[in-house]
Design brief:
Order of helices and strands: HHHHHHHHHHHHHHH
Oligomer: single chain
CATH superfamily: Amino acid/polyamine transporter I
């Protein structure tokens, strides 16, 4: 259940629903070639080396590559949060005025207000954020997802025609060139973050037997949670009209209106927003805390950014992140369509995160050869195959991320790829390079913690 709770949210379903029945394929394949390898490989690393992805990659490759990995884990949230909060803003528009869902200025304002508000909540300590996160997942993800599917099934059972064809010829995505399948990258990002539960592998009675079973059970549950709400959107909304940010609320609005309960639209909008914000609160402190710890131990961060408040929260890192996100949020006011902005930010977050996963797979394989006798609470079977499949799938998704998806309309491939590359360099690659070159031993404020168990 921790694994299920650590990945995805209903806001990611509209991007895949444009494929109709083929969305099932686009969930199952990344689950097999990405979710399973990431989970099992991370479990072995977590059971042998403490300290998370930085120490895994540092031990397996090098310290600079470890810094790159932890930075990618942190910096992908700079793109992820605007995309997530863009979805929240579009969702809340249905509780205020539906026309605002496609208004870039409104969306930019909501991103800025909600993120700074979340930073304020996070600065009060992890206990408050944890309470809000756990309850919000049930209220804003599990319950609305079940309601959406039930209404969709009843809608079809009444004899209404599905907006997307559901015949067997639609099982595979249509092929109209490479760009027609690029939205599969969104499915990879749905599963990103699953490695965070690997740190608990040592708490199991029999990790070698129980953890793989837990992962495959979690994979089945994750597929159920995401496949059926995705199909419900495809049943109700024609593909050209699906908004990548407001698609869930479009479907609820149509179905509630159809069943004569449209007064529930604002209520479900608020519930969905709560669920998405709960997921963000669960993530907000983690990556920044990891960056703080490494910055203190290795001298990568100036003392100014190592300051914490009375609750032990790295408020200066979070505030700086909020400033950057504020600037990025303003792009929503200038990019022609909200869906296009959402996709660009999701693609950038995915690109940055995939770099970390590639480094993790390489480190795991090298550690199995360079430190074969190092104690591990869990040893993944066929580790080489898992690393090969996970690494190749990550690289493939990374390459596809530079191609504009055909579902977003005609765009210049060169301009789109240039935009993705610029964001990748400015946010994902240049900062860790500068931190490695400019870091000073005098910036170390704590002793390095042991990395072995």
């Amino acid at each position: 259940m921790m694994t299920v709770g650590s990945v995805g949210y209903l806001g990611s379903t509209p991007a895949t629903s444009v494929f109709g029945l083929a969305s099932v394929f686009l969930y199952v394949v990344p689950a097999l070639v990405f979710l399973v390898p990431v989970s099992l490989v991370a479990a072995e690393l977590a059971s042998g080396w403490q300290g998370g992805v930085y120490n895994w990659v540092r031990e397996g490759i090098s310290a600079p590559m470890g810094l790159l990995a932890i930075w990618c884990e942190f910096s992908q949230t700079i793109f992820y949060y605007p995309a997530l909060l863009g979805y929240v803003g579009s969702t809340l528009a249905y509780a205020i005025d539906q026309r605002l869902a496609s208004n870039g200025v409104y969306t930019a304002a909501m991103i800025i207000v909600l993120f700074w508000g979340s930073v304020l909540v996070a600065s009060r300590g992890t206990s408050l954020a944890a309470k809000l996160s756990s309850s919000g997942t049930v209220i804003g993800t599990l319950i609305p997802g079940a309601v959406l599917v039930i209404l969709g099934v009843i809608f079809l059972a009444q004899g209404n025609q599905s907006a997307a064809p559901m015949d067997v010829h639609r099982v595979l995505p249509p092929w109209h060139g490479f760009a027609s399948i690029v939205l599969v990258v969104n499915s990879f990002f749905t599963y990103a973050g699953v490695e965070v539960t690997a740190v608990h592998v040592d708490e199991l009675r029999d990790p070698g037997r129980e953890y793989p079973r837990a992962i495959f059970l979690a994979m089945a549950l994750v597929l159920l949670v995401f496949i059926f709400p995705t199909l419900a959107i495809a049943w109700a909304i024609p593909e050209p009209h699906i908004s990548l940010t407001a698609g869930v609320m479009q479907t609820f609005n149509l179905l509630f209106t159809h069943f004569g309960v449209s007064f529930l639209v604002p209520i479900i909008a608020i519930a969905l927003a709560v669920g998405a914000l709960a997921g963000m609160l669960a993530w907000l402190d983690g990556p920044s805390e990891g960056l703080l710890r490494i910055g203190r131990e290795q001298g990568y961060l100036p003392p100014y950014f190592q300051t914490v408040n009375g609750e032990g929260i790295e408020v200066r890192i979070l505030s700086t992140q909020a400033v950057v996100i504020t600037v990025i949020a303003l792009l929503y006011a200038f990019i022609p369509t909200i869906s296009r902005a959402y996709w660009i930010f999701t693609a950038l977050a995915t690109q940055v995160y995939l770099i970390m996963y590639v480094l993790m797979f390489i480190a795991a394989q090298r550690l199995r050869h360079t430190q074969p006798d190092h104690p591990r609470g869990y040893r993944a079977r066929k580790l080489g195959l898992l690393c090969l499949v996970g690494g190749l799938s990550s690289v493939s998704a990374f390459v596809m991320g530079f191609v504009p998806p055909s579902q977003l309309g005609h765009q210049s491939p060169v301009l789109y790829a240039g935009l993705i590359l610029a964001g990748l360099l400015i946010i994902g690659l240049i900062p860790p390079l500068l931190m490695d070159r400019l870091g000073k031993p005098s910036w170390r404020t704590v002793e390095e913690q042991p990395t072995h168990r």
